[in-house]
Specification:
The protein is of the alpha+beta class and 199 residues long. Helices cover 40% and strands 20% of the residues. A seven-stranded antiparallel beta sheet has the order 2-1-4-5-6-7-3.
């Protein structure tokens, strides 16, 4: 067994001097290399194709990233708007009333029923109406006020109002749907109502 490179070089130079065809020379070289691999146990490394595998892996990773980022983004939908948004109130009628069955905020005005044509009040009611969210039930306590208002189009809306510690609750008298708001505007509207009736 030959271990030194010098011995290999001498053998190769002798092989070059021999009169052989190029195909025979190539076969001889292949056999020598194959025998060397067997003797030393070192296999000729096959060239692996890392670039295509890397590109495929990167494409899959990018696709997964895009899918999960789209799934985790908050949906860009139209914001939930109140059924009473964009109303322009011209006149309101309020009344103190603790009954669910009767409604006192009507014309002609009776005792303890007030008509309000104040811009600040109208703005407070309009802001409160934009923050309303429909809820399942009214509070277990009796209502406190009746509210009726007229828009610029002369449309009339009627509500029962509950003064709950959690939020302001309103019931649309026509649809019987219950709405709630715990916004600052709702709290201000309720304070104004209480102030009108000395509560």
């Amino acid at each position: 067994m030959m271990n030194s490179r010098k011995e290999y070089d001498e053998l190769f130079s002798e092989l070059k001097k021999a009169d052989r065809s190029p195909a025979v020379r190539q076969r001889t070289l292949d056999n020598i290399l194959l025998n060397e691999e067997r003797e030393t146990g070192v296999q000729k490394k096959e060239r692996r194709h890392f670039v295509p595998a890397f590109i495929s892996l990167a494409a899959v990773a990018i696709a997964l990233f895009l899918v999960f980022s789209v799934m985790s983004e908050p949906s860009i939908e139209a914001p939930v708007t109140s059924a009473f948004a964009d109303l322009e109130i011209e006149r309101s009628i309020v009344a103190e009333n603790g009954s669910v069955q009767s409604f006192k905020a009507t014309l002609p005005l009776k005792m303890n029923v007030r008509s309000i044509e104040d811009a600040r009040w109208n703005q407070s009611v309009e802001k409160t109406l934009t923050t309303l969210e429909e809820v399942a039930d009214a509070p277990e306590i009796p209502p406190a006020f009746d509210l009726s208002f007229f828009t610029a189009e002369q449309k009339n809306y009627r509500f029962k109002i509950w003064d709950s510690p959690d939020a302001l609750f309103l019931m649309d008298m026509d649809s019987k749907k219950i709405y709630s708001s715990n916004s600052e505007d709702a709290a201000n509207m309720l304070l104004m109502l209480k102030g009108m009736y000395g509560q």
